[in-house]
Amino acid sequence: MTASAEHAGTIDIRSLTKRYGTVLAVDDVSFNVPEGSIFGLLGTNGAGKTTTFKCMLGLARPNSGTVTFGGRTLEPAMFEHIAYVPERSALYEWMSGNQHLEFYRRSYKHYDAERARKLTDLFHLDLRKRVKALSKGQQTALAVILAFSIHPKILVLDEPTSGLDPVHQRHVLDLMISESSAGTTILFSSHQIGQVERAAERIAILHNSKLVMQGDVEQLRSDEKIIEATFDSETPSLNGIESDPRVRLVTRNGRLVRAFVRNDTEGLMKLFADKQPRSLRVLDQNLEDIFLSAVGDDINAAKSWGG
Amino acid sequence: MYYKELLRVRHFFVYFAGTIAAIALVCMVIPNRVLSLGAGAHPQIPFVFFLVVAGIAASILATILGTSLAAENCAHLEIAWTLPASRIAYAARVLWVDVLAIVALFAFIVLAGLAVIYAHGFGRYLVFDPDSGAEVLRFAAYPLAWFGIAQALTASMRAKAPAYAGLAWPVALALLILYEVPLSAPLHAMLRTINLVNPLVYASFASGTVTPDLLMLNAAIAAEALAGLAILGIALALAQWQRLQA
């Protein structure tokens, strides 16, 4: 077995850049999605997530950079094992759910009718209805059913829970986790950070078309602690804490000050305690903290690594 | 692999064929005494009449189906381009099924017309020209030429495609009329050249020659020209489709 066959589900994106006219949609983005992992792509609106997906799948032509799947550049036959759920429905509005399933059955060798039936039951979808008669959430559910029914090795999901109710959102996440445990590589985007936190093992964060952070979720969480202090004064004086090399970022929100600390949390706690805050505590970072600090809350950002 | 395409054209085909079938049925039940075949002891029903009607009706369908690639481009590329098939193969499948539907409708209309004639016992009045075979090819190729032109115009478009495909008809008519207007020689020559790709030029009702002032062609050459337009249009559409990637 060759190396590429062993890791057919690995996605490797290198120096991907895409311009639409003068607009830079994706700027030199590189990341790697290991086989069988769940990888979350986070970013604000217009950050370049969908464009990245489109470039990956050949729906848009990148200006530079490469994308490989298991070490191979994309070719049509590989779509036998790659499924894509786009953010905006691409279903045929004049076709019914049943007709879509039949279309996929005839198009994909590994289409699993039994699985499609079970998923249809799970999402309570009436397949007799035409797509134009389905709600946005139902259309998303149908797209998800189609994607999972072909037993893909790679699943690319752009906002896969968009329009779904919380119960069905949970179903999609459970499906992703279950599919990943069976070896499927999953790359997905979502604005719902809680979902990404629950499902993704690794993340990349795009901001203003650039990759601003990536890594293992647990590692990123443990990389930094947050010291949160509440002061009596609206503008507490921090006297040098903001420029302390152990502190990556300090955010202020009225009386609340949060410092993102890389190391020596105890030493910095003492510095904060000297400022006599009303309350002081150390928090573990959650993904939302990581995301917000990565995309740079310009109002609150006081300092970031490397200027 | 043709499933979705067959479903797509079925909708249009059923609508058109159903309308034609209904008209044919109505014509069949009209009593003979109400029908007039003109004065004289030897009334004539030219076979080419049915070809013209079928050609025009099929051309309407052809114009509608002529935006099929644009419709894919407008909203379905995320499905169409992530199927395990080459893009050209996919587009060729779309176009092939469209062509089949257009030809099938053409044949259906001709047969429906003949059925009406024979149902009334007027079959003996049918007049076949010596070049009826070439006329069949000419009027079968006529809607395909419109199809090719519509595809070539719209393959890389999105929502505006139907409007552009529809505009091809009045523009073609205007070009033909302009040619008849006294204009300067260079302009006249230019219009003559442009009209070479105008399907209307090749669809004169008269058998044997096609718009004599413009082109001296017989039905066989007109059929070849129309088929050429269809092939050229389809080739241009496929080339656009291949380069469509944003």
Describe the model.
The complex is a heterodimer of chains A (about 300) and B (about 250). Chain A is α/β, with parallel strands linked by helices and about 300 residues long. Chain A is built from ten helices and 14 strands. A six-stranded mixed sheet of chain A has the order 6-7-8-3-9-10, with helices on both faces. Chain A has a four-stranded antiparallel sheet with strand order 2-1-4-5, covered by helices on one side. Chain B is mostly helical. The radius of gyration of chain B is 20 Å and the shape is globular. Classes of the chains: A alpha/beta (about 300), B mainly alpha (about 250). The interface between A and B is medium-sized, with 29 and 20 residues.
List the helices and strands and how they pair.
The complex is a heterodimer of chains A (307) and B (246).
Chain A: H1 3-6, E1 11-20, E2 23-33, E3 38-43, H2 49-56, E4 64-69, E5 72-73, E6 82-85, H3 97-107, H4 113-122, H5 136-149, E7 154-158, H6 166-181, E8 185-189, H7 193-199, E9 202-207, E10 210-216, H8 217-223, E11 225-230, E12 247-253, E13 256-261, H9 265-274, E14 279-284, H10 287-295
Parallel strand pairs in A: 3-8, 3-9, 6-7, 7-8
Antiparallel strand pairs in A: 1-2, 1-4, 4-5, 9-10, 11-13, 11-14, 12-13
Helix pairs in contact in A: 4-5
Chain B: H1 3-29, E1 45-46, H2 47-65, H3 68-75, H4 77-80, H5 87-119, E2 126-127, H6 132-154, H7 161-180, H8 185-194, H9 219-242
Helix pairs in contact in B: 1-5, 2-5, 2-6, 5-6, 5-9, 6-7, 6-9, 7-8
Rg of chain B computed from alpha carbons, rounded to a whole number of angstroms: 20 Å
How would you describe the shape of chain B?
A: globular
* Percent in helix of chain A: 25-40%
Please give the alpha-carbon distance between the first and last residues of chain B: 26 Å
Radius of gyration of chain A from CA coordinates: 22 Å
Question: How many angstroms separate the termini of chain A?
Answer: 47 Å
Q: How does the overall form of chain A come out from the CA principal axes?
A: elongated
Total tally of structural domains of chain B: 1
Biggest beta-sheet profile of chain B: 2 strands, parallel
Order of helices and strands of chain A: HEEEHEEEHHHEHEHEEHEEEHEH
Largest interface: A-B, 29 and 20 residues
